[in-house]
Amino acid sequence: MITQIKGLHHVTSMAGNAQENNDFFTQTLGLRRVKKTVNFDAPDVYHLYYGDEVGTPGSVMTYFPFPHMAPGKPGAGEVGDTEFAVAPGTIGYWETRLADQGVKGLGRETVFGETRLRFAGPDGDGFSLVEVADDTRAPWTGTDVPEEAGIKGFHGARFRVQDSAASEELLRFMGYEVADRQGDMTRMVLPGGNGADRIDLHQMPSAPMARQGAGSVHHIAFAVEDRAAQLEVRKQLMDTGYQVTPVIDRDYFWAIYFRTPGGILFEIATNEPGFDRDEDTANLGQALKLPTQHAHLRDRIEAILPPLN
Ligand code: ZN
Fold first, then answer.
1. Ligand 1 is a single-atom ion; what residues have CB below 5 A from it?
2. What distance in angstroms lies between residue 254's CA and the mean position of ligand 1's atoms?
3. Interacting residues of 282 by C-beta distance below 8 A, sequence separation 6+
4. Which partner for 9 in 57, 189, 264, 265 could form a disulfide, CB atoms 3.0-4.6 Å apart?
5. Distance 35 CA to ligand 1 centre (A)
6. Single pTM value for the model
7. What fold characterizes domain 7-304?
């Protein structure tokens, strides 16, 4: 069994409009933009990262905004809800705040004994704010969201899968344990995780497979401490029959990817080196950062990318 995984590292989704996306995460949700860079494989598209003050693994929501991208069609084989942790007693504040700002899809529910507020992102993205006791992670405070209500990072994610057994088996192999079952939902928890350590499997046997587009999660990344741990995880996955990519340098972490039996693309990302490797903590996310291989294209890239306020 793999023992090196610490919980989630980041969640990467697709968006339509970059400015709208930026405003939703930095203003409405009060996260910090910790990096403004480009899609390394398509440098004419932004890659925007939002999280806590330094972009601690387990807090980082990232987006590829593709102008004019068609909306995704929700279904099985994808991350349905991405869940953020907030302090107990703050859901009411969020319900009012999000309603006042015209956020769609608002609805409260209680699942596995937790109170949550579901809502939709600007492209129909599925999100929840979940009240979590004893979460000691500190929220970003450079926003008008009161510190006591601030988002502390991810709580976890809810996967929509046609058959949850295969996903459950993989997550067990990755160190997760079944904590509870309720109807068609299975809750898995990673003991000793980084706080972003819950995965709920929502089994939907007759749901059609999702079609990815704006508002869809592209992939979900799990955290390992360093490159040595990542290589051990890669070997164990490959020994079990998974097709895993070679290690790829993403400037702020090292990444490997593999497709899971449920259809979701998983990444394993390192906690090193982090988002302050090329910017001071005070100025994170301000300048447009380009990976070395695209640095010579800066003039062209800056002319193509829509300006971000
Ligand atoms: Zn990623």
1. 12, 221, 267
2. 9
3. none
4. 57
5. 13
6. 0.98
7. 2,3-Dihydroxybiphenyl 1,2-Dioxygenase; domain 1 (3.10.180)
